[in-house]
User: What shape does this take?
Amino acid sequence: MGRYIEPQCRLCRTERRRLFLKGERCYGSKCPVTRKKASPGKGPRDRMKKMSDYGVQLREKQKLKRMYGMLEKQFKIFFRRAERLPGKTGENLIMLLERRLDNIVYRMRFASSRRQARQLVGHGHIMVNGRVVNIPSYITNENDMIEVKDKSKKMLTVKESLKEYTRSGAVPWLEVDPDNVKGRIKNVPGKNDVVDLADIREQLIVELYSK
Assistant: This one.
C-alpha cells in the first residue's frame, strides 16, 4: 500500500490546523502551525485568497484524509462504503474511520501516532479477539478485545506511548487496561464522541464526492 513519506508538518501548515500526525508531539509552542502562520511554498499570499466552493470542499476532504494518514484511493473506498450504510453519509464515514484497527490502537495509547499504530498492526504485534490481525484498515466492532501480543508488550515504543494514558487517559468509548496492554471497544463512536474532529464539516466532503 502506498504511503506519504514527505515532511508531515508541512501538511499541518497547508491545512492551517494541527493534524496530530506525530501524536502528542504536535501539541505546544514547537508546532510549526503555531510558529509559521503562512502556508508552505512560494507565494503564500496567493493561496490565502478567498477559495471557491470547490476549494473549500477539497480542503475539508484533504484535512480529514490526512489526519488518518490515508491516500485518495483508500479514502474514497471508505466513503463509498459509508454511502451504503443507513443514516448520514458524513457521520458514517467518520464512524468507519474511527473503527479502523490502526486508529483504535492509537486511541488506546498503544502507539503515539496513527502512523506508528499502523506499523504495529502491519508487523503483527496486535491481536483482535485473540487472533493476530495485520491489516491496519480492518474494521473493528463493539465489544472487540484489542491486545498487544505478549512478546510485544515490552517494546519500548509501546511503553513510551502508554505514558500518555497515565497523563490524559483514553476516549470514553474505549476501555483500556494499561497494565495488561489491552482494551475493549465499549460502543461504536459517533461524530460527537470524537473531540478532535469537532471542527470537521463532513457534509462538505459528501458534497464534493457527490459532484
Summary: The chain has a mean pLDDT of 84. The first helix runs from residue 9 to 15. DSSP finds ten helices and five strands in the chain. The CA atoms of residues 57 and 208 lie 6 Å apart.
